[in-house]
């Protein structure tokens, strides 16, 4: 008995090696060859419903409403539109402690950044700070008008716990350049109105994407293109700051690197203000030093977070005391108080600026959304909580629509401040509310001081902030992993730096799309061979040990077969056949009698695909080669049967595995070549 | 000894059934588990070159030039640009017999059709017939001006042996409606000039696509959309003919079915001319009868081919004898003789009509190309000869550019006449030349008669011709095979019929594209189970017999993982996991410890895909589930290794087959559930 067991052990070890060969020899007598099965029949309605649900509602948002009372449905709906009602119930003092500290931290980071960003959008600082604070009534603190709206709206509607809302550098730059293309007089009231109009339509497009559940559209801008676009924008923004940093008075309005550098060097001998440069550079060094410290020790994140505020306070006092503004150091000046009116009446709903407003709004809205969703996903994945993309878009949309009615421009979630918010231990969106309040209070108390803040410090703050967007490691990784991604990234980067933000964006989107189109037009195909000692058939290019079968060619098609590639796939298969045949005949091997198409990766097939197979079958008939299919998937076999193509090819030429094909057709063929 | 052999036979029969299970039990001691291999390293240059070649030169057009003498290269190049120099050398009398007969046949079919089609494009008949004939000098036969150009150019440059060149109904309608949107006075000289301009740019775009080897772009219009567009156009064209058929004098200029039917019925009591109706309907019945006969007996194809000519001759004589034109039967009238000047100076190269000319030209050129390539491919596949898509585009482009300089409008290959050409036994493009000559001679001889040809007969001829474009069987097949294709088809059809040709075209393209986008955003995933008695793992939905593995979930991703779907795939896998876990735990089964992702169909992965897997890995870690990969392809494993993701997941968690995964991780697990 023990002998038999031991025997069996050895035998089983051998079985694995022999099984492929043995199954071939005994092919027609084996009972285990399964028939390719059709999936259970579905009604047309169910089929369409499933497809629509999978496209627009992959997260099954309505599942939770099933079998609930009317009141419960109302509560759930309210909670899903305003997540604050959900997490708010479990909100406790411990959460608030985290939110309060992080709110304070991001407030101190944001106040100086926001003032600086508004300059990028060619707007007065109030329009940036207004994003930060709440309420429809805007308290005019000199030029530092404020409102409470956007973070407050987001706190109620957003589903991310980490995002810190406000104006961001890239969107501000985008708005600034595209709006000034339309209206060159950036001090005019029209310019301001156009900014509100763009913000309104940015909100509308964001909301529309969320409501129509078209959020997946933003997935069409590739990660690589975003990296390139962000890096390019960061470089462009930093270059723009040379004006403030060097105290240059006449500066180009263009953003491309050539124009900017020409402006800088042509003003080198007379236009630079040395006092400004000293202030700007010393604070830039301070800010970068603070960032470096944080990089070395993550626990000191608050050093970087408060460094801009310190810079503003110190520089403002210095200027106030030394009266450096008399020596040509430019300062913010004009700071007045009061409550602003609503901007609802300012939005262009008709006239010649409606079109440009919509265009700029849609672009800015999409860019803002791409940035916010990327950030939201990153942090949601880090903390492993669910993020509802469509809800996020609705929140962003609502926030920008309300913002546009209360003198705000496009706001979104920013990379660096969200990271700071997270590191400072935020728990919920309450940190956004805390931040708003803190900003409001701070402004009320220290407002008069901003009058003497030098522009050079704002430039330093922007440069230090946007350098965080330059992600060299990500670019190196792109180069290592995917050359096409690297090209997309560089295309977007150079487009932004050498031409302008819009062109860079266009290049990024175009490259992203062409990659998708390439994928669907020229899918890969592979020649399969048998892995020695197994019944597995694998790409012979990847596994040089895999051996092809005498008299048979096995081709795997690695994509759904649609109109966009059906013709190519047909011709590619025929080309494989011709190439292989020539090669085998010159090697003195027998001619190819069977062509097996491994269909496992072919998830779908449309009518063009059916026609392509008909044509392939006919071409092969003329060459006296038998077409065989291995493992057509559920959808594919159903369509093959519906079109009666299975009758043409023959049901007995369709197998569930390549091993079955080989065992049936090749009598004694061990692998060859 | 014989006992042992027999034993072995039985054992081997059993092996197949046991092998899966046994390999699992002995997993770690088996030597046959292959390591996932990286493909041979390639230089970046070679990688990029291969990708470019596969995209733009899948047919390897330069292979034949390798290792040839300079003179031979010149000859080969000449032959590839002008295929006539290749097939012309083997041209013999037998070929000419076939071409001569088919040339005669299509000439008799085309003369009446062309006169009729010109009316669709709002042009005088000469501009249609000019397509048919050759030479730069155009012989003015009354209004029936003719030139020899387009078929002659095609005969030299085209690679299809069957296509019959000329104006076609759909392109004529498209030109007619789009041009008259730009210039409403269709009798003006500007209208004519715009038609030549559009033709010129149609040729330019066609040639450009060929030269730049962008021919694959036309694959982006799906077969289904073409069927719908053609059927819709046929219905629209037939409806337009009610004007001529019923002898209505005041008719709408719109093409949508509502406007047309309103026009028809509002003129029912006073605007219809009963003599016209009798002529029109009787010849329509005659033409349809001829078609029906051919359908019953393919050998009588010449009956349908000459029936339009007979109709024209008989009706013209009848009108001439009875002078029915005095009773309100509209006739062609004005027929003058002479030689026309070239139209090279007529093309708008600047001014306000340049833009519309380019726009209309590009649309018409693309539609004409789509039709011609579809036809060319069909017949090339039928006779199994190679068709060079890019060469075909260059031929079409050259022909239309030359045509535009010689007073022709856009011409292409027509469905019905190509079929007739084929049935009449054409051998080469010489049949096009014969046709041109025959048309020229016929016109010279019977010209004066055309003066009395009633418009009603032209209407009948068009209706009979376009009914061939209504392909009910194809639409039924679409419904049976692919519901999405059916929707695309109906969208295009209703767009054309209820709005206009351009909108129909737009709908067709939009639906085609959205299908592609859907495919790349929402790829399919499947849960795999083991087919009993094999080591094959298949979709459990398709194979209900396939059994899942206790403690393990096997998910197959059926698409390359790119930025457009990476996030969806990650979330879909996690959703599968949650759903399955809930189900298994309620069934009292053990929790899922291993998640195997079958990567066979994943042909490529970009940086977004890498990030998605990183996030997936992290999410799974939190749930205490081990991520395992099975059979990553060559490109994928290379990128996984380049990004060091293999180190995160662990090289020993990556296997070449699912069977290996199961044998390694599941100690005693036969399939469960």
From TrEMBL, chains A, B:
Q: Which Gene3D superfamilies match?
A: STAS domain
Print the keywords alphabetically. Membrane, Transmembrane, Transmembrane helix, Transport
**GO biological process entries:** transmembrane transport
Q: Where in the cell is it found?
A: Membrane
Domain STAS positions: 542-665
Q: Which GO terms describe its cellular component?
A: membrane
Chain intervals for the UniProt region annotation (Disordered):
1-30
Q: Which PROSITE patterns does the UniProt record give?
A: STAS
Membrane protein topology class: Multi-pass membrane protein
Q: Where are the transmembrane segments?
A: 163-179, 191-214, 220-239, 272-294, 300-321, 394-416, 428-450, 456-479, 486-513
Q: Where is the composition biased (Basic and acidic residues)?
A: 1-18
Q: Which organism is it from?
A: Vigna mungo
Xref: Pfam families: STAS (PF01740), Sulfate_transp (PF00916)
Q: What is its main location?
A: membrane
The protein's name:
STAS domain-containing protein
> What family is this?
Belongs to the SLC26A/SulP transporter (TC 2.A.53) family.
